[in-house]
Each structure stands twice: as C-alpha cells, then as structure tokens.
Amino acid sequence: MRLKFLGLAAVAAFLLVSALIVLHFRPDTSYAKDFRHEKFMGLHLGASMSDVVGQLGRPISQTTIQVQETWVYGLRETPPDIILTTGIFNSSAVIAPDPPRLVFDSAGRVAELLGDHSAFVVTQGVRVALGASKDEVLSAFGQPVLIRLPNAYTHLFYTRPNRRGATFKSVIMVFDAKNRLVEKQAAMDWD
Predict the structure, then answer these.
(1) pTM for the full predicted model
(2) Closest alpha carbon to 123 in 146, 103, 142
C-alpha cells in the first residue's frame, strides 16, 4: 500500500513539475492593437512604411539604428518559423538564430565580428581576422546569405513580452532609409 502511495505521489509530482515547465515556457505575448497575423503574412518586401502601418496598425514601439555594411552568413538550417523572410538573399539558405556577421568599415575591411563567428572555424577551418578585405572574406567563405548595406534602419515592433523573462512571439518589420520594407521577422524570443 505504501509503495502504491509513493508511486502515485511521484507521478503527481512529475505532472506538477511538467505543468509548471510548460506554463513557464509558453509564449506570453502582447500584440499591437490592430495586428493580425494574416495581414502580416500578406505584406511584401518593398511595401512603404505607411502601407504597413495601414495594414497592421500602430506598432508597440519603434527604433532607428545606423548600420555599417554587414555580411550575414547562414551556417545551418533552422525551422521556417524562426525567420519568415529577411532582406534580399544571395541563396536560399536560412539564417541561423545568431548567424556569423562581419561588419566592414568605410575602407572595406572587417571592423567587427558579431554572432557565432566561431562556427566559421568549425565548419570551414578558416578564421576571419579583423582588417581582412572583402576579397579575402569572399575567397575564404564565398558569398554571404545576406548583405546589409550602410543605412539607417527603422524597426517597428508589433509584440512584446507580458512579463520579464518570458518567452514571447517576436514580430518586427524593418525599413530602410527610404521607408521601404526590407525585412519581416517572426520568431520565438525571450526577454
């Protein structure tokens, strides 16, 4: 009888812990008032910011950042819901969550290494050094998946987490200096 009780207690404890884990990692997302996923999916790259805001409503927040020329390399396949569409691709590769990114200075030399650039060493046996030229990078790694040209990018955020530390569905629309949609992002994220 005592063993049966202990067995039931263990099962109950397991179910309780499992439920708490599921509740903790369940997406806890607030969306902008007029946001609809179907409208998000219907928007195409090149749309104007006013068209996007007309379709999706006002974003929860917005920010503008200045970006130097950046080359993004996708090293592994990821599920299609990580990034739905992004920029203009040189290939059909999918960008990994923290892809290697090389930032160039105005002289065309590598000024900064971002993301998981150590993967270059593992997958291709080559290191990228600060100061390397674009030609040296191309001969070592080939064409990047995405090239971001120097620009001011405006990000419109259509979601936010409901609580600190929460997993949430991130939806971001990115516009270039001419207010054209250049990137749509939809991914699971955490605060």
Answers:
(1) 0.57
(2) 142
